[in-house]
Design brief:
mainly alpha, flat, about 85% helix, single chain, 3 helices
């Protein structure tokens, strides 16, 4: 079986993911990541360990995407807050 993620199409995959999540707020992505962690914990407690581990491993990339998106939002808010202060000085 061929590896679908390689150096040639890694940039295309990154661009596709960024385009798909461009309109989704970072907070919503982070809440989804917390939801996947809770669902994974619930599935493990109820005896569905395989499903719980699959859902649990999905939460890590979701957290990474959410943090990157949330960092960009915070950065733009800080720049917007600092811009009027610099103009008044």
């Amino acid at each position: 079986m061929e590896n679908l993620i390689n150096q040639e199409n890694l940039e295309d995959i990154r661009a596709l993911i960024e385009n798909k999540i461009a309109d989704v707020p970072g907070e919503l992505i982070l809440f989804g990541a917390i939801g996947t962690l809770l669902l994974s914990s619930y599935l493990n407690k109820t005896g569905h360990t395989q499903a719980g581990s699959i859902i649990g491993t999905l939460s890590v990339p979701i957290i990474g995407i959410g943090l990157a998106k949330y960092k960009d939002v915070l950065k733009s808010q800080i720049e917007n807050y600092q811009a009027p202060a610099q103009e008044g000085a």
